Amino acid sequence: MTSSTDDAAGARTARRDATAAAAESSNAAFRIDRDRIATSPFFARLGGVTQVVSTTDSGLLHNRLTHSLKVAQVARAIADRLSATASDAAVLDKLGGCDPDVVEAAALAHDLGHPPFGHLGEQVLDELARERFGLTDGFEGNAQTFRILTTTDVRGPTAVGLDLTAAVRAAVLKYPWARLGVPQPHPSSMAVPPRGAGEPAEAPGTGSSKYSAYFTELDDVDQAREPFRRYIEPWQQTVEASVMDTADDIAYAIHDLQDFHRIGVLQQASVAGELQQWTRHALELSTVPESRMATRDGRSGYSLERLRRRLHAKDSWIVDDDAFAYAVARVRRELVDGLLAAVFDGSVEAEQAIAEFSTRWTERLVEGIVLTESPSTRSGHVTLRAEQWHEVQILKWVHSRFVLLRPDLALHQRGQAALLRNLVGELDEWVRDGSEWYRIPRRLHDLVELATTEYQRLERDRPELLRLSRPAGAGGEYDIRTLARGRAIVDFVASLTDKQGVALLDSLSGRATTPWSESFVL
């Protein structure tokens, strides 16, 4: 009897030891993934890529690198908090787990695909990819990130991507579907589509506005998500992706506001006036017909009322008018009457005020994290409580209303858009010039050959995907050479920093006084 008991105890100990060893092995692999991402030159280049306003304008502003570091910090804090709560830990086991190293790696990687000039560059490259080259899946920063991690970065052992674990690759997939067609049924056809799956209003008929993979990487998506299929729906994020996505929202809501307070763009009077007008006239504004809202958006209070209505239309699963009003009051008290009440003058006191605002809001939002087994299709398994969720919406609205819609920023961005269009056009002409083929930048040469191989493989193995491509060649059929050239040029331009994009166009236009160097091109 004793021997049998000892044997059973020994077996249990052996299983525990084996489990611990497996966990340690996977943890080591996740840390290797994180280190590969952090040491990739694609990560380093984010220091020269716009967050909102070009990094050349002020050393005080966040760039994509500093933003990614802060997202990683917030994401790890969320993962640690979930893992430390017994009830949450039990739910996490049912959903596939939540490893802090995986979350941190995904957060560091999430913006690798952002092109020069941030979201503006993303819009311009998408338009050019679709209209000039017939690439139906266009360009999207999240899809470009996944392409870098699995294909175009060559620092992994196989020199094809970074050879990351399935967990980390799956955690990067914020929108685990292609723009069109995959998976079937496509998430855009759901009664309440997941966030990002709907078509953009400005480009109807083009497919989902957000997606995380091009046709060329769909096999990698399937392989990365295979271990999680029994835990989540085909359109759902993994828990670790949901943590990263929520952390991105938190960081964006807080840190960009700090930037524009620093450089004097966020003015207390203008923000206070909008919030006060809505608060005083909320009931009256709620009765204004929609047709009049569109024509009076510039009047104080109307923009905030339009936000309230949009939230009702899209996020009925969580939106609440009382919570919305409380969020307006809190933002007014802490941002407008608090942080913005004193002009930033570079003093120690001013720096401390920003640090305290950031710390207080980050802690508040992280404490508002909730985990659910059956979330709305508009949410991941990890989200914010209703109170904090509304506060994030208001903070993001302040950023949009008083920063992104400024006329001086629009003027700046129109110039950047023209630069990118001219740059893509010049490169396209160069690549198509047969006599110059062997003189194009070596990296671009290699990307054309890579993309040609990829589209030939798609034509052989999954021709139905290419048939989704808009006619780009003679006879109204897709043209492999055009698709490959377009994807390669987009890859090349997307890998530049803001300054590199300007310098390359100067060289191609004859304005540069020194030859272009490839030494810093990825």
TrEMBL record:
<dbReference type="GO" id="GO:0006203">
    <property type="term" value="P:dGTP catabolic process"/>
</dbReference>
<dbReference type="InterPro" id="IPR003607">
    <property type="entry name" value="HD/PDEase_dom"/>
</dbReference>
<dbReference type="GO" id="GO:0008832">
    <property type="term" value="F:dGTPase activity"/>
</dbReference>
<protein>
    <submittedName>
        <fullName>dGTPase</fullName>
    </submittedName>
</protein>
<feature type="region of interest" description="Disordered">
    <location>
        <begin position="1"/>
        <end position="20"/>
    </location>
</feature>
<feature type="domain" description="HD">
    <location>
        <begin position="64"/>
        <end position="253"/>
    </location>
</feature>
<dbReference type="Pfam" id="PF01966">
    <property type="entry name" value="HD"/>
</dbReference>
<dbReference type="InterPro" id="IPR006674">
    <property type="entry name" value="HD_domain"/>
</dbReference>
<dbReference type="InterPro" id="IPR050135">
    <property type="entry name" value="dGTPase-like"/>
</dbReference>
<feature type="region of interest" description="Disordered">
    <location>
        <begin position="184"/>
        <end position="209"/>
    </location>
</feature>
<keyword id="KW-0378">Hydrolase</keyword>
<feature type="compositionally biased region" description="Low complexity">
    <location>
        <begin position="1"/>
        <end position="12"/>
    </location>
</feature>
<feature type="compositionally biased region" description="Low complexity">
    <location>
        <begin position="191"/>
        <end position="207"/>
    </location>
</feature>
<dbReference type="InterPro" id="IPR006261">
    <property type="entry name" value="dGTPase"/>
</dbReference>
